[in-house]
Design goal:
204 residues, alpha/beta, 7 helices, 26% strand, binds S-adenosylmethionine
Length: 204
């Protein structure tokens, strides 16, 4: 991890992924989570205030030390116990079938091998367990996709490895998930190449 990614990107994410609009999305995505929950790419814990009371505990997987530090006050204030339990979504240190649900928000863009991470999430979910997600990714219009391809190299450098154009629905089904709900829309106010969202629930 370079210094920029280590020291600056987590602060930017902590600020810009905490708008009123994004908080409303987080509330929807976290609704229905229950039992033992895995969150990959936990970041600065911006989902913590949205965990429903039915969540027994959260195993947070996050490589960034600064992200975890920024999460401190949210974790401390949380009624749901949160334990940092791993550093890499691509290789999860848990038994197969050990979680009731999983959560991933704005993370599959950044994990280097998203296919491997999804295979791991599916492995550690119990049969019938659900992955709740919101991710940005590949846009439907050719014109926007061309911009995503053009902007990708610079975006990856300044945004901690974030890809703009991953086909989130295809990655999920390719990993063996069944899409139970999928809503696609552009985030209001975001430039289109950065703001095409995939929000929903995928089931093992
Ligand atoms: C754009 S941030 C989103 C953070 C958080 N999920 C949120 O919604 O605010 C992407 C996160 O993915 C994390 N990440 C990067 N590589 C990862 C990996 N291999 N496994 C798990 N998380 C990773 C980053 O450290 C960062 O916290």
């Amino acid at each position: 991890m370079g210094l920029w990614t280590e020291r600056v990107v987590p602060r930017i994410a902590n600020r810009f992924l905490d708008t009123r609009q994004v908080r409303a999305v987080r509330e929807r995505v976290c609704a229905g989570l229950a039992g033992d929950v895995l969150e990959i790419g936990f970041g600065s814990g911006l989902n913590v205030p949205h965990y429903p009371p039915a969540v027994r505990g959260v195993a947070a997987v996050e490589p960034s030390e600064l992200g975890w530090r920024l999460a401190g006050p949210r974790v401390t204030a949380s009624e749901v116990p949160v334990v940092r339990s791993g550093l890499d979504g691509q290789s999860l240190p848990f038994e197969s079938g050990s979680f009731d649900a999983a959560l991933s928000t704005f993370t599959l863009c950044t994990i280097p091998d998203a296919t491997q991470a999804l295979a791991e999430v599916r492995r550690v979910l119990r049969p019938g367990g659900a992955l709740h997600f919101v991710e940005h990714g590949r846009a439907p219009e050719e014109r926007v996709r061309r911009w995503q391809a053009r902007l990708n190299p610079v975006n990856r450098r300044i945004a901690g490895g974030c890809h703009l154009d991953r086909p989130i629905d295809e990655l999920l089904t390719g990993a063996g998930f069944v899409l139970e709900r999928l809503d696609n829309f552009y985030a209001k106010g975001d430039p289109k190449p950065f703001g095409y969202l995939y929000e929903g629930v995928a089931r093992r």
